[in-house]
Amino acid sequence: MKPLFSLFFLFSAATIPVLTQSVDSGVYVWATSPISKKTTSKQRTLLEGTTTDFKHMKIHATTLPAHQAPHPAHKHDDEELIIIKEGKLTVTIEGKTKTLGAGSVALMMPGDEHGFENKGDTPVTYYVMRYESKEPKDLERGKKAGGSFWVDWDEVAFKQHDKGGIRRMFDRATAMTKRFEMHVTTLNQGLWSHPPHTHRAAEILLMTDNSAQESIDGKLFSATKGDLIFLESNVPHAIQNTSQGSCTYFAFQFE
């Protein structure tokens, strides 16, 4: 007979997975990401693991049919960011509600009650990023920075420049990050955004239109609409538009 503590250990290890695998810098492809069916939605998992600053990070995309909600309003101890890929999603955070369209984002602080619903007649798809920092969460820091929030795409100005243009979504601290900055870049045909460079903050690029190639530590990787590019802290990188016409992508950094 095996000792009880051994049986308990085996049971725990089998039922409570410990995620220790780090997320590699690279392109995570929309078309080949695994899809699972939920009660009222479909979920496409793009990446999951640990990073320099996060002990757990998961990014997936949810597709929600018309007149459905993925789950009741709830709260949790990690932080959550959503980016609407297509369609309209009604978002409620701490009793305040707004319907947001494609390109809009919302960020929910730990412990804030929130819920999502598709009140329209067509499906909506949105990316979900949930993450927990290795350092203790700082709820007071998040509160001082403004707490949970949303950004409506239609209310963000497009500023043109010599390589295309930019929309600045937000730049602030949260409970899980000292700084979280997000913008959306439109890059003209054939251009590089900048020479290869590094920075302390990890970065994610999310392709929303057309295609590009990303240089990561000297190697080139192709990315197209829907794909996600993860760049770990201090990894050399640069992006070039390989489309006929402009390409557009979200870029967000966090540390």
UniProtKB/TrEMBL annotation:
InterPro entries linked: Cupin_2, GPI/OXD, RmlC-like_jellyroll, RmlC_Cupin_sf
UniProt source species: Spirosoma aureum
Keyword Hydrolase among UniProt keywords: no
GO molecular function, one term: metal ion binding
Superkingdom of origin organism: Bacteria
The Cupin type-2 domain, residue ranges: 63-128, 185-250
Keywords: Metal-binding
Keyword Metal-binding belongs to the record: yes
Name the record gives this protein: Cupin domain-containing protein
SUPFAM superfamilies xref list: RmlC-like cupins
